[in-house]
Amino acid sequence: MPGPSTYFSNDRLDELSEPTRLLVERRNRSLGAAYRLFYDDPVEIVRGLGTRLWDAAGTEYLDVYNNVPSVGHSHPRVVEAIAAQAALVNTNTRYLDRRLVEYSEELLGTLPRALANVLYTCTGSEANDLALRIAKTVTGKQGVIVTRNAYHGVTSETALISPSLGGEASIAPWVRLVDPPTGDGSAFADAVTAAAAELAASEHGFAALVADSIFASDGVHPGGAPFLGRVSDIVHDADGLYIADEVQSGFGRLGHDLWGFTRHDSALGAVVPDLVTVGKPMGNGMPIGAVIARRELVDEFAARGRYFSTFGGTPVSIAAADAVLHIIREEGLIENARMVGEYLTTGLGMLAEFHEAVGAVRGVGLFLGVDLVRDGVPDEHSTLVVVNELRRRGVLIGASGAARNTLKVRPPLCFSTADADRFLTELDSALRVARTAKAI
Amino acid sequence: MPGPSTYFSNDRLDELSEPTRLLVERRNRSLGAAYRLFYDDPVEIVRGLGTRLWDAAGTEYLDVYNNVPSVGHSHPRVVEAIAAQAALVNTNTRYLDRRLVEYSEELLGTLPRALANVLYTCTGSEANDLALRIAKTVTGKQGVIVTRNAYHGVTSETALISPSLGGEASIAPWVRLVDPPTGDGSAFADAVTAAAAELAASEHGFAALVADSIFASDGVHPGGAPFLGRVSDIVHDADGLYIADEVQSGFGRLGHDLWGFTRHDSALGAVVPDLVTVGKPMGNGMPIGAVIARRELVDEFAARGRYFSTFGGTPVSIAAADAVLHIIREEGLIENARMVGEYLTTGLGMLAEFHEAVGAVRGVGLFLGVDLVRDGVPDEHSTLVVVNELRRRGVLIGASGAARNTLKVRPPLCFSTADADRFLTELDSALRVARTAKAI
User: Fold this and answer.
1) B305–A279 C-beta distance less than 8 A
2) SS3 breakdown of chain B: % helix, strand, coil, rounded to 5?
3) Residue that wins the pLDDT comparison between A348 and A400
4) Which of A229, A431, B264, B378 would you label with B103, given CA atoms 20 to 30 Å apart?
5) Is pLDDT of B306 > 90?
6) Which residues lie below 8 Å from residue A6, measured CB to CB, with a gap of 6+?
């Protein structure tokens, strides 16, 4: 029997129930080898509401994983917005659309004034791809700095700056890797300084730092704000651009503000990235992303060619995004993320007292990383046992980090303290199971 | 006063009605300089049904341009499929989803058997980007052949093979350009042979030919089928892959079959691309695209890394795509495209007898290109006069081709002969206006 995994292995086909096995086999034939399913026993989701999902047999799951349906699965107001607009018309941005303009103004109003233009895409990958294209075009340089286990997308270009996909061997020659921030972020700032200088002196030149404001794929590293302000200055001093990847940290998840980088505002000044990229929760599941940029960068990019995306910023996508932005405000989801995030952090701290396996608990708002360790070293095996045991107990969660030993806690933003209690109770039980489980 | 254009110029702001001018100005401020609006007098679309669109003032337009809402604007069955699935749940492909499997099987059933796996994206750009990533990974080569005014997408990678975006200077060193097919396609085949040999002998090597099956951005060139079968053999003999870009020609538009490349099947055998990319009409406006590939290519790609797209193949997108596939069949839209396409071709031929400005009429099904000429040379100015005059007359159309003198006729597939009559009548009038308009 193979060891436990976050993802289903075909070696386990015989362990599945007959209907599940048949569906997985059909899926394997048509989708092929590049796709993966969660869990040793995959889940067939057929319905969702708020923080809950249900499988085909009617079993209920608490969703502690999905950061896309951030205002809650099947939020009636988002559903209604999509249905109403789809029934009216769904064209493209080459026609005038009043709501596109109004939503754009509202979105830009949540960001520093210098970020004056928004360009719509369908995914976070496309947003990071476009941000890189703008940054490289405007600076005339190629070099990019990212963190050691960064993930910024699956297009050809963004895969080249995403070591989490294919390892360090898969990244481009013009990419430099730095460790994610720890402590007060000084080491991170020093590493960016050195990498920028090294790139500037190379044939590639230095174009940009791309930083996920919560360093999710590196294992969730909020670091001690406000180091990103200093890092932004370092990048600018090296004539580079600072691209804030808010695909995961954006739209209120960190419980502070809509944006992750504003956690780093300080008496020294507000943090103002040159380009901000957004995606995942923007339309609660509708495929919409965006690049928000300084106007002068867009002007210079536009001088060399125009931008158009067939599906980017279409009326139905904007209707969903517009509903999401209003729901976040009107349902107080940022404050909820802060409050429930603190409640969870406290609860996880209490669990750590009873379970040696629980190491560091990091994060802010509803984006927490919980390291599982054994004798002080990362324990991937126990992490995978816990992930699969939680799935059996009706709680959906995933793992991340370079050592795959970090539980990613990033539920919909409407997660309640009662949801948190249920999660903590089941996690406690899963940790007990993991303790008695044999290592591979 | 600036000359007429397919796109709005800010030099014309003062010519607009007060409400339109104010909205355009607000749009300019928030979306910035990279975006463009159609027509000298932009249209604010607020409603659509079938082949009709309505602006904010209630004026009706006949849509001869939009190939995305291919089963018709706001088709009730697509709207209902989207609304129903959005109300149930919208997750991702890492959970089991029966309809995803069923739709995938159905889609693959429409393609040659060797094309056994489908990978979902959100856009045609992402599909072409992923196809290139797979092709380059599997062949270990970089070199790509495309046509002289090709358009294959707006990601960093696909922009490098899209001379129509930024001219020949903007394409990558590993790209070779060939003229689009004319006549029996012999010259095209010879050009591909030479380019493949040249790339194979270069440091880049030869990875793939990417060919839009209708050569839309080159000005619509169906060529004399079955030359693509020969070209496919040439590519394979040079150890390259043939990527059929069906983003525009796919899903029945050519009135022959669901796919453009099957027009080239012959007694010598069926045409079987290595990778097929789809997008635009796949979900009638829902952002969904896909790469359909030979299984062995996906297997080899998967051995180096997995594929996941957050929004690719989500339940709501699949619901829309599933509805579209069934509507195309049940409403006989392929047959309609063939029949109305022939009717339009005949009608355009008749117009050519009365208007010297009408040059070649090319195309198949509901994808036609009509060249406007003066003394036998491309006449961009008259083309732009006609495009804007048609807009004033309630008919929406666009222009393409390297010389910008080709009217692109590619309406929703439910376009009727009555729609065709209205279009031909208005085009006749617009041509009369253009004849009397002064050249710049």
Assistant:
1) no
2) 40, 20, 40
3) A348
4) B264
5) no
6) A38, A39, A384, A387, A398, A399, A404
CA distance A439 to A430: 15
pLDDT of residue A123: 98
Considering the entire predicted model, what is its pTM? Answer: 0.97
CA dist B365 and A281 (Å) reads 40
Q: Tally the residues of chain B.
A: 440
CA distances from A25 to A28, A108, A401 (A): 5, 46, 30
Take residue B438 and report the two structure tokens written for it. Answer: 């002064």
DSSP B317-335: HHHHHHHHHHHHHHTTHHH
Position B225 scores a pLDDT of: 80
Please answer whether residues B411 and B66 qualify as being in contact, where contact means their C-beta atoms are separated by less than 8 angstroms: yes
The token pair at B269 is: 């055998």
Residues B63, B394: Cα–Cα separation, whole Å: 9
Q: Are A255 and A264 in contact (CB under 8 A)?
A: no
Single-letter amino acid code for the residue at A140: G
How confident is the model over A63-85, as a mean pLDDT? 98
Between B94, B118, B312, which is nearest A30 by CB?
A: B118
pLDDT at B304: 87
Q: Is B287 on the interface with A (CB under 8 A)?
A: yes
Residues linked to residue A415 through DSSP beta bridges, in sequence order: none
What's the longest Cα–Cα distance across chain A?
Answer: 64
Give residue-wise pLDDT tens across range A385-433.
999 999 999 999 999 888 899 999 999 999 999 999 999 999 999 999 9
Tell me the β-bridge partners of A290.
A120, A278
Buried b (16+ CB within 10 A) or exposed e, A297-336: bbebbbeebebbbbbbbbbbbbbbbbbbbebbeebebbeb
Q: With beta carbons less than 8 A apart as the criterion, state whether B20 and A101 touch.
A: no
Is residue B22 less than 8 Å (CB to CB) from chain A?
no
Q: Does A38 touch chain B (CB under 8 A)?
A: yes
Q: Cβ contacts (< 8 Å) between A316 and chain B: which residues? A: 82, 285-286
Q: If you write DSSP's letter for every residue of B6-33 in order, what string do you get?
A: SB--GGGGGGS-HHHHHHHHHHHHHH-T
| Contacts of B106 by beta carbon, 8 Å cutoff, 6+ apart | B322, B325
Chain A (351-390) residues lying within 8 Å, Cβ to Cβ, of chain B = none
- How does pLDDT run across A126-169, given as a tens digit for each residue? 999 999 999 999 999 999 999 999 999 999 999 999 999 988 88
Secondary structure of residue B62 in the 3-state scheme: strand
Instruction: Find out whether B360 and B345 touch, Cβ atoms under 8 Å.
Output: no
With beta carbons under 8 A apart, name residues in chain B contacting A280: 310
pLDDT of residue A438: 52
Interface test with A, best of B9, B16, B40, B311 (most A CBs within 10 A): B311
Contact list in B for residue A399 (CB cut-off 8 A) is none
pLDDT for B135-187, tens place per residue? 999 999 999 999 999 999 999 999 999 999 988 888 999 999 999 999 999 99
Q: Kindly report, residue by residue over A207-219, the tens digit of the pLDDT.
A: 999 999 999 999 8
pLDDT of residue A440: 45
B117·A48 Cβ contact <8 A: no
Count of residues in chain A = 440
b/e per residue, B170-186, with b = 16+ CB within 10 A?
A: bbeebbbbbebbeeebe
Contact B285 A314 (CB under 8 A): yes
Give the full edge-to-edge strand order of the sheet including A45-49: A45-49, A52-55, A60-63, A395-396
Contact A367, A253 (CB under 8 A): yes
**Residues B83/B274, Cβ–Cβ less than 8 Å:** no
Q: How far apart are CA B89 and CA A53, in angstroms?
A: 8
Read off the pLDDT band of B438 (50, 70, 90): low
